[in-house]
Amino acid sequence: MAPRVVVFDYGSGNVHSALKAVEAAGASVTLTNDSDLALEADGLLVPGVGAFATVMSGLREARGDSLIEKRLAGGRPVMGICVGLQVMCDEGLEHGVRTEGLGQWPGQVTKLDAPILPHMGWNTVEVGSGSVLFEGVEEERFYFVHSYALTQWDLPGGGPLQEPIVTWSTHGQRFVAAVENGPLCATQFHPEKSGPAGIRLLRNWVRSLGNS
Hints:
It is built from 6 helices and 13 strands. The strands form 3 sheets. It has a 7-stranded mixed β-sheet with strand order 2-1-3-4-13-12-11, with helices on both faces. Strands 6-5-7-10 form a 4-stranded mixed β-sheet, with helices on one face. The chain is α/β, with parallel strands linked by helices. Strand 12 and strand 13 form a beta hairpin. The mean pLDDT is 94. It has helices at residues 16-24, 35-40, 52-61, 64-73, 83-86, 195-209, and strands at 4-8, 28-32, 43-46, 78-81, 89-94, 97-100, 105-111, 119-123, 142-146, 148-150, 165-171, 173-181, 184-187. Helix content is 25%, strand content 32%.
């Protein structure tokens, strides 16, 4: 039986490509903001298009913040895409305005120091050691569209906690391209727009849901 994935519908742009890509990766996919369905699903996908503050506003209005917290507290997998990665951090700084994030990871999302913005197009990544998401696509390029990013990582492992696996990329400066942190993972790039490599990455995530 195919793992059940809910793409969380909180008003984040066009999510049609994400739905199709997760379906192509082998999941049974539903687009909804129904809390019960989202809590019970094998995996929750949090898309993110636009500004940090707008995404956070939409998530809070749809009670996505408490939903994500509940899933992670129970070890239930959550995956964020693009701004869906950024809002997992403590805060975002855009146009001089600070917006509180979900606080799952430390750090502030800031504007990339790069000669050309947005960072739009295909780029390589430096895959973190032990990655499950990037198995089989370590040398591939992925599709990015963003001007802001998390450029520092300050969450080491320790005690019973496994050290997060962080994948990096560079555009003007080095930034976090993906994180795998127990049940919570996210990518700054768009796997649903990254062709066969993106589908393979999503398939790796979908397959992992059966082990959670």
